[in-house]
Hints:
mainly alpha; ABC transporter involved in vitamin B12 uptake, BtuC; 12 helices; 79% helix; globular
Amino acid sequence: MLDDFMVRAALAGAGVAIAAAPLGCFVVWRRMAYFGDATAHAAILGVAMSLAFSMSIFIGSMTVALMMALTVSVLSGRGYAMDTLLGVLAHSALAFGLVAVSFITGVRIDLMAYLFGDILAVTRGDLAVIWGGAAIVVALIGWRWSALLTATLNEDLAYASGINPKREQLVLTFALAITVAVAIKVVGVLLIAAMLIIPAAAGRPLSRTPEGMAIAAGAIGIFSVIAGLRAAYEFDTPAGPSIVCVAALTFLLTSVFRNVRA
């Protein structure tokens, strides 16, 4: 079954959707959209480092994404405006990554595949990495779910309950770095934030509980992958952007549904 490239693509996309669903909910609740975008943009620098030192793309991109997320977390409370800081770091990391890639010789690099994804070229090894990373993210978020919800709701309440909000922020940071690393092959660094935010935002009008929103986000993400791949096959369009387009249309439909119900 895995010899069919479309089946591999669908499985890879589903793995990314499952990993992004619960994490994306916290990104939406905490209003961390730019934070996720900056972490994703930094991954291209990790790709350049991986190619330069002949190491795994997954390890390189996850390491740099984690470093970026930790840097933002440290600097955010030291007199820097968050939106300005994220803008500077995100675009700087992307620019340095693209420049670093141009200096690498002897390696053929398809930048479009890393920027916008190349889900149709996913291999069995990539599937193992994607689903392994997704399992780690889901297990980590599931383990810290209650503490993360409390810290997201109110930091003072979290401290009163014996929960350290900074520790929970580190858990989200680590999960975000893993998600970026596994998603770079599927949708690319420029569209990773879209897969984190759009399915979660689309699932909000369909749910009444945090757990329901995470499940709805996962279902919408998987539907977007399958429908996006089908649309890319029928209309000969790029697969990664097609997946995001389907997710965006789903968000539009759920928004209309919420307004009609209201």
